[in-house]
Amino acid sequence: MKKTLTRGLMNLLPMVLSLWLFWSLFISLDGLGRLLFALVGLDELYIGAGFMLVAVIVFIAGLLFSVSPIVWLYGWLERQLMKFPLFKSVYGSIRDIAGLMNRDGKPKTQKTVLVKQANGGYVVGFIMSDETPSPLTQALPEGDWVPVLFQLSYQMAGVTTLVKREELIAVDWSFEDAMRFNLTAGISTSNKAKPKN
C-alpha cells in the first residue's frame, strides 16, 4: 500500500505542480490584461483575453526594440535608474537571469566541467563565461582563469569559484541536464555524461 501511494505521488506530483505553476502564471497575466481592459471600459471579457492582450503587448515591445531610437531611449532610462543602488542590484540580477534564458543566436558559453577536489573526488561545475573581469585577473596569479559555478542541490543558489582552465575536465553534457543533475543531488540521471578526450 505504501509503495503504491509513493509511486502515485512521485509520478503525479511533478505533473500537478508544473501544471499548477503554469496555470497560476496564466491567471496572473490574464488578470493583468483584464485590468488593462478595465481601464478602457471593457469589463466583461472571457478568460484568456487578458493573457492574449499581454502577449500582444510583449510582441509589440519586441518589435519596438528593433528600432534604434527606442533602444537608445530605453538605454538612457536604464542608465538613469541604475544610479539608484537598490534598483541597480535588483534590476541587474533580473536582467542577468533573463539574459541566461535568452540565448538565441548566441554561442552557449555555459560548459559543463569536472573539477578535482583535495580529497581526490570531483565536483560538477559550469563555466559561465569565457572571460574573467579585469580586476580579478589583475589580482590573481598568472594563468587562464575562468569563473566556474558550483550549483547547490535543491537550491537556486550556488558558489562561483575562479579555476585555472587547464585544471578543468570538459564534459560532453548539456548545461540543462547537468544543472538538473546538480539541483537534484544526482537523483536525475536522464542523460549520462561523457568526458571529452
UniProtKB/TrEMBL annotation:
<dbReference type="InterPro" id="IPR007462">
    <property type="entry name" value="COV1-like"/>
</dbReference>
<keyword id="KW-0812">Transmembrane</keyword>
<protein>
    <submittedName>
        <fullName>DUF502 domain-containing protein</fullName>
    </submittedName>
</protein>
<keyword id="KW-0472">Membrane</keyword>
<feature type="transmembrane region" description="Helical">
    <location>
        <begin position="49"/>
        <end position="74"/>
    </location>
</feature>
<keyword id="KW-1133">Transmembrane helix</keyword>
<dbReference type="Pfam" id="PF04367">
    <property type="entry name" value="DUF502"/>
</dbReference>
